[in-house]
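Person: Please comment on this record:
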Amino acid sequence: MIYVGVTGWGDHDSLYVAGTAPRDKLQEYGAHFPVVEVDASFYAVQPKQNVEKWVADTPETFKFIVKAYQGMTGHQRGEIPFDTKELMFNAFKQSIEPYEKARKMAMVLFQFPPWFECKKENVDYLRWCKEQMGDTKVALEFRNQTWFQPAYHDRTLKFMEEEGWIHSICDEPQAGRGSIPTVLHPTDPDNTLIRLHGRNVHGWTKPAAGKDWREVRYLYDYNLNELMEWKGNLERLAPSSRNIYLLFNNNSGGHAAGNAKQMIDLLGVEYTGLAPRQLDLF
């Protein structure tokens, strides 16, 4: 099964009836897509009551891909707000329990930063992360090209297979060491994650300073030829992975939701069990 969605649910104005309150957007989102990526969890370990609301706001078959907290992946600047890494992981695991209990957890995404390069201490840290997460399904996404250089390409994929990491396959600008190629190789027979970040090379390499960097980096609208290319990629991957989760992360210009709907149409997929649509009567 191919599940198509986007990252986050707050920024996609085309999905919502005018005047929809932020607290109600996830309920409406569930009428359009069967899966979403939770990015709030990257910025802070979420209180359980938040997660319980999100679980309650979505249909029974809905799935969440939860982004690992930034302290867990080395993005955190300065000291982490936990006494130890073990306590940080335990707090995160407790926060995701409502997803697990409701059987709405697809996976936790560990996206590592561009400076997380292929070297022994980082390989050891990945093993430690996997141990800390126990039976929770976990996906791995790199942002450093060294993991897929010829000398390490096959060993990286073998490591992911042996350690039980789901491969997060990327579509992103090819902009040197801080980007990775699209590697169409599932590492888990049950689940594969694909994240489409756009192909804005200029924005990727020279993002704006401060809080506006995301607005530049992910400004991109996939054209029909590019979407057809990915339709072909999905057809190649499907025999090797029972479930494929495809997320559009090109949110800056409001293109992600439209691209996701185009892809659903191209695939000819019809999802059952979505939430009922709201009607804009006025």
About this structure: Residues 120-133 form the longest helix (14 residues).
